[in-house]
Specification:
The chain is mainly α. 41% of the residues lie in helices and 6% in strands. It starts with a helix and ends with a strand.
């Protein structure tokens, strides 16, 4: 999981899951609590899918 995809590509990460922002990679404190919880759940689920997916080379997991 990363906030700056080009850096992850440069260092050779094979599974890249984009996140929200540098100061708050797994959330957005400006959202209401329930919306932020849903956002965090989506990001974690995306990361779990990335871990369980066979990849051949670098793969960016967008929505």
């Amino acid at each position: 999981m990363c906030t700056i995809v080009p850096i992850s590509l440069t260092v050779g990460a094979n599974r890249i899951v984009p996140t929200v922002a540098i100061p708050h990679p797994l959330g957005n404190p400006e959202l209401p609590a329930e919306e932020e919880k849903a956002l965090r759940r989506r990001l974690v689920n995306k990361a779990l899918r990335a871990l369980s997916t066979e990849v051949d080379g670098q793969t960016v997991f967008e929505d």
